[in-house]
């Protein structure tokens, strides 16, 4: 799968969101650690997800910190259940080395840290020592504070600078450069104009010192977020459901995802892998001038 992520001749990868949390902003993505919850997660694979991103701590704006013990209680049953039935690539969304270590032992393959490996100094040595691929994401502040009047002089330059610094730290710790994925953190401490600038300049996040020739793969986490609802406001009618779970947010997500591919995204992290897979199939086939199998 990592080989495909690095190959620009291959279509982008779809990452399905599995929230083992009671409070994530999109309720249908919440999956309890029960057989029914595991079946729901596996359903995302059947729907077209190449990777499942399992998280046990909500990162919605205003979310509170969750202890490692509680996070483990949430994610381990889901990871074990998925691994029992599938060899799909599993990404763990965590900021804690203790959680990451147990999840890797349970079958996780990738560590996705929304803090960009700032929060826990033990996490980079862990992933380096286990040769685990990682996602380095930019976030201003913490989930609790990130949307409290975020400000940038130049969002693209500042986010790129942060990612470059964290990549250098990862490489110095011994992380394999072929296993580094970067994420500009759409919606994580960003205003509308910041999100749009980053979406338009995803390639700038890829071309960092130490990257492979094709650059670091860029993950785009845009799915059903508030900025999409804002962009849709001028065309919504009274009958439209403008909430995160409504059809307009899905349509906007598909549009933003395809534009993200055009600007350099290699992984689309989404709540709706089936619809995303269909949109990517048509877009990629048009780009290739043939039906892609």
* Succession of helices and strands: HEHEHEHEHEHEHHEHHEH
* Tally of structural domains: 1
- Rg over alpha carbons: 18 Å
CATH architecture: Alpha-Beta Barrel
Please report the total strand number as a whole number: 8
Structural category: alpha/beta
GO molecular function: dihydropteroate synthase activity; metal ion binding
Organism: Spirochaeta lutea
Enzyme class: transferase
Keywords: Folate biosynthesis, Magnesium, Metal-binding, Transferase
Could you describe the 3D structure shown?
The structure is a single chain. The chain has 293 residues and is an alpha/beta fold. The chain has one domain: Dihydropteroate synthase-like (TIM Barrel, Alpha-Beta Barrel), CATH 3.20.20.20. Helices cover 42% and strands 13% of the residues. It contains 11 helices and 8 strands. The chain has helices spanning 2-6, 35-46, 68-85, 97-106, 123-129, 155-173, 192-200, 202-206, 226-232, 247-262, 273-288, and strands spanning 13-19, 51-55, 89-93, 110-113, 134-137, 180-183, 218-220, 265-270. The protein has an 8-stranded parallel β-sheet with strand order 6-5-4-3-2-1-8-7. Helix 2 (35-46) crosses helix 3, helix 3 runs parallel beside helix 4 (97-106) and helix 9 crosses helix 10. The longest helix is centred in the middle third of the chain and has 19 residues, at 155-173. The chain starts with a helix and ends in a 5-residue tail after the last helix. The model has no long low-confidence stretch (mean pLDDT 91). It comes from Spirochaeta lutea. InterPro entries: DHP_synth-like, DHP_synth_dom, Dihydropteroate_synth-like_sf, Pterin-binding_dom. It catalyses: (7,8-dihydropterin-6-yl)methyl diphosphate + 4-aminobenzoate = 7,8-dihydropteroate + diphosphate. One of its GO terms (biological process) is folic acid biosynthetic process.
